[in-house]
Amino acid sequence: MALLIQLTSVYFGSLDKADRQQMTHKEESPARVESDSLDRQSIHKTLENCIQPLEPSTQPDLLINIVSGLVASPNVNGDNSIDIGHLQMLEFEASWPEGFYNTISKSVITFDTRKK
Predict the structure, then answer these.
(1) 71 beta partners
(2) Other beta carbons within 10 Å of 64
(3) Is the preceding omega at residue 97 within 30 degrees of 0, hence cis?
(4) Do 109 and 77 meet the contact criterion of CB atoms below 8 Å apart?
(5) Helix, strand or coil, per DSSP, at residue 8
(6) First-residue to last-residue Cα distance in the chain
(7) Is the dihedral of CA 61, 64, 70, 76 positive or negative?
(8) If you ran DSSP here, which 8-state letter would residue 14 be given?
(9) pTM for this entry
């Protein structure tokens, strides 16, 4: 073991500065470490503002935006979009051949978070 330590110190001691810089990864630089730390702090602050999606007792029974905390209006039915789409498909197929070119109305009401 002592021989291994001695050989290692002789090998690394003989490397010049350029060779030693190649032995570290660029992600280990102090600037990268600081940048990563700031990124983690930013993510932590963002997640603190979000609701806890795994704690249903703290949430309303309506649809809610987990980032902004805004509650959807009661007429939003985006959570039933697959069932609504299936019913629309059946109605469309039943209207064939006369109704093949009819317009299909939008029945799904989405949770629009944009302010108008």
Answers:
(1) 64
(2) 16
(3) yes
(4) yes
(5) helix
(6) 72
(7) negative
(8) T
(9) 0.42
DSSP letter for each residue of 50-108: S--TT-GGGS-SS-B-TTT-PBPPTT--GGGHHHHHHHHHHHHHHTTTTTTTSPPP---
> What is the rounded distance in angstroms from the CA atom of residue 92 to the CA atom of residue 73?
28
Q: Write out pLDDT tens, residues 96-114.
A: 999 899 888 888 888 774 4
> Given CA atoms 23, 27, 32, 33 in this order, what sign does their dihedral have?
negative
Integer CA distances (angstroms), 42 to 38, 39, 45, 65, 68, in order: 6, 5, 5, 20, 16
pLDDT in tens, 8-43: 665 555 555 555 556 777 888 888 989 999 999 999
- The residue assigned the tokens 């939003």 is 76
Structure tokens at 65: 């935006």
